[in-house]
Design goal:
With 460 residues, the chain is α/β, with parallel strands linked by helices. It has 20 helices and eleven strands. The strands form two sheets. Strands 1, 2, 5, 6, 7, 8, 9, 10 and 11 form a nine-stranded parallel β-sheet that branches. A two-stranded antiparallel sheet has the order 3-4. The protein starts with a helix and ends in an 8-residue tail after the last helix. 52% of the residues are buried. Bound molecules: iron/sulfur cluster (2 copies).
């Protein structure tokens, strides 16, 4: 019989935070030495880094995180867009604009509207979507979710297509997760929001108020055969120090039980939402602490993809890209039907980065990073354990870099502004030259020529 303590033991976490309060800089530096070897960290070691206050030491944490991200995933940054499909929800989460008691209008997309939204996203250049549904068994039963996924994969616009659909639906049964798996999803994401039981109880009403239903959802997903799962916390609901240790405990639990840790960890930070009950974060996280969270997670769970959204301002996103983030949304709308028009219905939260995809890409290039629309791994069955075997030692970047180059070349050919075409061509040349294995470099060149000749969806 599973118990919450198998995943998160509150007393243990509080004890670690207390015990590591006065860890010396010398200890912290030794921990960073270990972290730089991409071995991950124990909860105790994470506690020491969480409690680091010295500016020099924090700069070392950032530097180590930058190194680990670069050695595992290279310079690529994968782009995606969320697609909000339905804002009907039977829950009343205090921080969310979709909560049932918010009187703002609701919308559920018809399959025709899904196709329209997808065409808009494809014509921007997106290849990966994250689907978002409020929880409502009548409005969004699993059959509807599956139909939406099928519609997305079947919708093409010119040369555009969606190649990977990740899904965020409410905690569900193994049977329903199996249907998601059969529909060909990439990652199943579900955030615990907060691992603190008392806060969780205060913030939630409705079926989601069941803390254990939420906590053990990933167990059911694994049982159903989904082996790429995404964890997350909504930072700002409770003490971030506790949440960081709790999410790492959850990752360790999955690794131990299923042999596979989280494919991704998301770091949404509380953001105002029209119609939400709470208009300020109960445990607000400063920008500096937010970046520290990202860096520590990168060091503690080095193999995981780390995701940031447009809840964050462009300047914070840019900093986050350099301390551990490996995936980002761009040009997001957070209400159903929000792409291509101003939506009159509820938004889940307010976005703080309203730039177009092309503008986001221009800034990524200016940082020396490589935008990627790659979706290769799950299509080649590099998921679950197979993926982890490559990600843990950093072998995965042998695929990430060439695939980023090829998919970014598609973007440049089909969607980029003249300025991005120019800076993007220079970036492709630079990153192509950085491929160490000459056979892979030559093969990438050949494939780039095929992309230039009009072929699409070529990957390693
Ligand atoms: Fe519904 Fe999710 Fe919003 Fe809660 S966070 S009100 S479950 S959409
Ligand atoms: Fe992601 Fe795999 Fe592509 Fe790398 S090669 S960007 S890990 S899908």
């Amino acid at each position: 019989m599973l118990s919450v303590n198998d995943i998160v033991t509150e007393d243990l976490i509080q004890d670690i935070l207390n015990r590591t309060k006065n860890a010396s800089d010398k200890i912290a530096l030794a921990i960073l030495e270990k972290a730089r070897k991409k071995k991950g960290l124990t909860l105790e070691e994470v506690g020491c880094l969480i409690n680091a206050r010295d500016d020099g030491l924090i700069a070392e944490i950032f530097d180590a995180a930058r190194q680990v991200k670069s050695e595992i995933y290279g310079e690529r940054l994968v782009l995606f867009a969320p697609l909000y499909v339905s804002s009907h929800c039977v829950n009343n989460c205090a921080y969310c604009g979709f909560r049932q008691d918010n009187g703002a209008g609701r919308k559920k997309l018809s399959l025709e509207e899904v196709a329209e939204q997808v065409k808009i996203l494809e014509s921007m250049g997106h290849k990966r979507l994250l689907l978002e549904f409020g929880e409502d068994p009548k409005e969004s039963p699993i059959d509807y979710v599956v139909e939406v996924i099928k519609t997305i994969y079947a919708t093409k616009c010119g040369l555009g297509e969606i190649r990977r659909v990740n899904v965020n639906i409410a905690a569900d049964t193994a049977e329903n997760y199996r249907q998601l798996k059969d529909a060909g999803i990439g990652t199943y994401q579900l955030f615990q929001e907060t691992y603190d039981r008392k806060t969780y109880k205060q913030l939630h009403q409705g079926p989601k108020a069941d803390y254990e239903r939420q906590l053990f959802a990933m167990d059911r997903a694994f049982e159903a055969g989904i082996d790429d799962v995404g964890l997350g916390v909504l930072f700002g609901l409770y003490d971030w120090r506790f949440e960081v240790l709790a999410i790492i405990s959850h990752a360790r639990y999955l690794e131990k039980k299923f042999g596979v840790g989280p494919h991704t960890i998301s770091v949404p930070r509380w953001q105002k939402a029209d119609g939400a009950l709470w208009q300020s974060a109960p445990s607000a996280v400063s920008d500096d602490d937010f970046l520290k969270i990202i860096a520590i997670l990168r060091l503690a769970v080095p193999y995981t993809g780390m995701i940031i959204s447009t809840r964050e301002r462009p300047e914070i996103r840019a900093k986050a890209f350099s301390v551990g983030i490996s995936q980002t949304s761009a040009a997001s709308r957070t209400s159903p039907g929000g792409y291509g028009q101003k939506s009159e219905t509820a938004n889940q939260f307010c976005v703080a980065d309203e730039r177009t995809l092309d503008e986001v890409i221009a800034s990524i290039l200016a940082q020396g990073l490589l935008p990627s629309f790659c979706t290769a791994c799950y299509r080649l069955k590099r998921t679950g354990e197979n993926f982890m075997e490559l990600a843990k030692p950093g072998e995965i970047q042998k695929y990430c870099r060439p695939n980023a180059i090829l998919t970014f070349q598609e973007y440049l050919a089909d969607y980029a502004s003249p300025a991005v075409k120019e800076s993007g061509a220079r970036a492709i040349q630079k990153h192509l030259n950085a491929i160490e294995d000459s056979a892979v470099r030559e093969e990438t060149k050949k494939r780039l020529a095929r992309v230039a000749a009009g072929e699409r969806d070529i990957y390693f």
